[in-house]
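Hi team,

As requested, here is the filled-out complex form for the acetyl coenzyme *A run. I kept the field names the same as last time so the parser does not choke. Let me know if anything looks off before we queue the next batch.

— J.
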Amino acid sequence: MKASDNKATLSFSNGGQSVELPIYKGTLGPDVIDIRKLYAQTGMFTYDPGFMSTASCQSSITYIDGDKGELLYRGYPIEQLATNCDYLETCYLLLNGELPNTAEKEKFTRLVTNHTMVNEQMQFFLRGFRRDAHPMAIMTGLVGALSAFYHDSTDINNPEHRDIAAIRLIAKMPTLVAMAYKYNVGQPYIYPRNDLSYAGNFLHMMFATPCEEYKVSPVLERALDRIFILHADHEQNASTSTVRLCGSSGTNPFAAIAAGVACLWGPAHGGANEAALNMLYDIQKEGGVEKIGEFIKKVKDKNSNVKLMGFGHRVYKNYDPRAKLMQETCNEVLTELGLEKDPLFALAKQLEKIALEDEYFVSRKLYPNVDFYSGIVQRAIGIPVSLFTAVFALARTVGWIAQLNEMIGDPEYKIGRPRQLFEGSPKRDVKPISAR
Ligand code: ACO
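And here is what came back:
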C-alpha cells in the first residue's frame, strides 16, 4: 500500500481530541482512509452497514469503475478479454496475474481437463437429495462435500493444497452442475470428455444422453464461454466477501467456496438472472409488451416491493459493460438458433428501452446489469431457468479462489470480525418465571 502525503483528521464537536488518520493510494480508484487504529485511539467504531464506504481488503485482481462502466481483470478491459481470450486463459490470468503464453495455456488446460471427473461416490451423495431440489441447494451441498472427498487438498495454509484445490474446483464445477441438472430431470449422468473445450464439455455433459451424442455448436460454445468470462470475477461483491470472510477462519477452500455458492443464490445477487427471466415470463403471461407500462408503474411504487430484476447495481452507476457484451452474444445466439423474433427477447428489448428513458431509472442511475441478458442466452441454449445461478457459480468459482488465495497470501490478513452498534437492552437480571 502506498501512503499518501494527504492525511485525514477526525475531530469531535464535543471537544474530544482529534485524530489523524493515514490515507493510502491504490493504482486506480478512490484513496482509502486507514481506520484500523481508530478504536484504540478513540474507543469508537465506524458504522457502515452494507460496506457503502468501506474497503474490506487490498486487492490486485479486479477493478471496477462504476461511473465509467469499466471492468478490468488484472488490468485488462473485459471487452478485450471477452473478444480475444477464452475462459481458461481468463482463469489463468485471474489466478496468476498474467495471461498465459501458448505453453502455459496448454499445460493449464491439460491440468483442468484431467481433473473434470468427480469421485464416483459423489453420485451416491447426490441421491440423498429430492429430485425436485433447487440446483443451488444441491450445489451448496456438493461443493461443501468436496472437502469430504479430497482430504489431500484441505489445508488452506499450504500453497500446494491451495493450487490443487483451485484446479479441482475449476475442473469439477461443470461436472457437478451438469450432475445436478441430470439428477433433476432423471437422466443418467454423462461423464466429461477430454477432447472437448471447457464450455463444450459442459454442454456435452448437460445435453448428451447415453443413447445420443450432443453435437456442440461452436456459436453456443463460444456464447457459454463468454458467459463464463463475464462472470469470472467482480471484486469484493457479496459472495466474494463471503468467501473471504469464511476462509479467514482458516477453513478449507471447498468449505469457503460452498459459502460463496450459498450467498450467490440470493435474488439480489446471482439469483437475479433467474429472477429476471421469471419476471419476463410473468409480464408475457399477463399480456406481453402491452403490459410493460403497468409493470413499470408497479416497479416505481415504493409499496409494491416489485423491482425491475436485472437492473441496478451497487457499483455500476452506468451501463454494466458486461451487459453490452451479453447483448451482443444474445443477438448471435438467437440468430444461430433462428429465434430472432423470440417474443421474450423482444419484450426484454422493449422493457430496457422504456426503463432507460424513464425519469425514475435515469435519476437513480439504474442501468441493465449482466443478468438482464444472460438469462435469455442461457434459456436459448436450453439451460433451464432454475440452473442459471448454478452456471453463474461455476463461472465465479475461479474469482472466489483467486480472491481467497490473495487473502491468504496477504501479510495483513486477519480473521474477519466486524463490530456492532448495540441497540438492545442494557444488562438486567433474570426474574423467576412466576414474576415475568
Ligand atoms: N428496480 C427498481 N428500483 C430499483 C432497482 C430495481 N432493479 N434497483 C434499485 N432501485 C431503486 C431503489 O429502490 C432505491 O430507490 P430510492 O432511492 O427511491 O429508495 C434506489 O434505486 C437505489 O437502490 P438501492 O437498493 O439503495 O441500491 P443498492 O446498491 O443497495 O442495490 C441492487 C443494488 C441490490 C443490485 C439493486 O439494484 C437490485 O435489487 N436490483 C435488482 C436485482 C438485480 O438485478 N441484482 C443483480 C445484481 S448484479 C449481480 O449480482 C451479477
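Two things worth flagging: The beta strands are 2-10, 19-25, 32-33, 62-65, 70-73, 76-77. The pocket of acetyl coenzyme *A is lined by residues 268-270, 272, 299, 307-314, 364, 366, 369-371 (CB under 6 Å).

Thanks,
J.
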